[in-house]
Amino acid sequence: MMVKKEKVELENFEEQIVEEMDEVDKEVVVVKSKGELKITDLPGVGAATAEKLEIVGYTDLMSIAVASPRELIEATGMTEPAVKKLIAVARNSLDMGFESGEELLRRRAKVFKVTTGCKAFDAMLGGGIESGSITETYAQYGGGKTQLAHALCVNMLKQDETAIAVYIDTEGTFRPERIEQFAKGVGLDASDALRRIKVARAFNADHQMLLAEKVEDLIKKQNCNVKLVIVDSLTSHFRAEFIGRGALAERQQKINKHMHVLLKVANVFNLIVYVTNQVMSRPDQFFGDPTEAIGGNIVGHNSTFRVYLRRGKKNSRVAKLVDSPNLPDSECGFYITEEGLKDL
User: Which domain holds residue 207?
Assistant: First the structure.
């Protein structure tokens, strides 16, 4: 009954928004062409209110247009009618329509890829790890997830001399010594590489989510040319803090929000997001590999590319592409050396 009630209330709110968009004062929109409006041009938003909105992440009209009224009320303390008018004007001032496949293809031309260091691995991924998306790897301990994270940092810095890599470390596994080894392997100055990697240790799930949100500040306020964001690992804190079936819904909701923030950053700033994930063994799997990634469908749906890593023969590793929007399932082998990832 509560779900039905909330659905009816949401439908009523959307109808009210549509009605108010017809009635809303559009003088501001007429005076300024679309795309030129600032947050302070919206009705009821002064300098103080704009500052409150920016503090919690509402820095442009699009973020306000797609926000729920409850979020804006909590952020600003405005009344419900004022918030409805605010959302209505924000939506009215934006071109929120469709784009053609041709336009999307032109935007896709800006996508770049960074090498893993292994030609077979790059070929499996269509040329390397892709920007504007989330690439997830999951494996048992020792599978090579963190080693790949270190290698991507070095390869990204080698590829772009102005690039900055952000490393959100949730398990204490980042090792500057490893960066030095990989940097020497690709002919990159180790000191310069370490200087261009910004590492943050996340001590709990909320801290981890906050650090992901602060990436946008690094880009906008500190003018950092962030090209790579690594979260190692994605689910460690969530798995430790939300225990039991009673906490499952809240855990999944938080992971979902966290990954939406990461995907937004990847899309808006055309950068690479690489996340590692822990695994579990399915007790009901009697045949085949029982290994399954933590996070369920929430993580699976939010990850653009999913790669399963496992140990191979003679200290090698095997990477298997299990999900991609445009590439076939395939696998390849590679070695992890002191110089980085190498082909078999």
Answer: 106-343
- Going from the C-alpha of 309 to that of each of 146, 325, 330, the distances in angstroms are 11, 19, 12
Lookup: tokens for 82: 């004022």
The continuous run of DSSP H or E covering 154 comes out as helix 145-159
45 closest CA partner among 98, 90, 110: 90
Contacts of residue 314, Cβ cutoff 8 Å, sequence gap at least 6: none
Number of domains the chain contains: 2
267 CB-contact burial (10 Å; exposed 0-12 / middle 13-18 / buried 19+): middle
Residues 311 and 200 in one domain: yes
The helix/strand/coil state of 229 is strand
Residues 154, 220, single domain; the answer is yes
**Number of other residues whose CB lies within 10 A of the CB of residue 319:** 27
Residue in this structure with the two tokens 């968009």, named with its chain if needed: 21
- d(CA 274, CA 15) in angstroms, rounded, equals 40
- Which H helix or E strand runs over 133? strand 133-138
The answer on 152 and 85 residing in a single domain is: no
Task: Convert the pLDDT of each residue in 288-340 to its tens digit.
Answer: 778 899 999 999 999 999 999 999 999 999 999 999 999 999 999 999 999 99
What is the reported pLDDT for 15? 54
User: What is the Cα–Cα distance from 248 to 234, expressed in whole angstroms?
Assistant: 16
Residues 86 and 119 in one domain: no
Q: What are phi and psi of 163, to 5 degrees?
A: -70, 150
In-domain check, residue 2: no
Distance CA 39, CA 125 (A): 40
For the domain that residue 134 is a member of, what is the CATH number?
A: 3.40.50.300
Instruction: Report the distance separating Cα 320 and Cα 334, nearest Å.
Output: 11
What kind and span of H or E run contains 7? helix 2-23
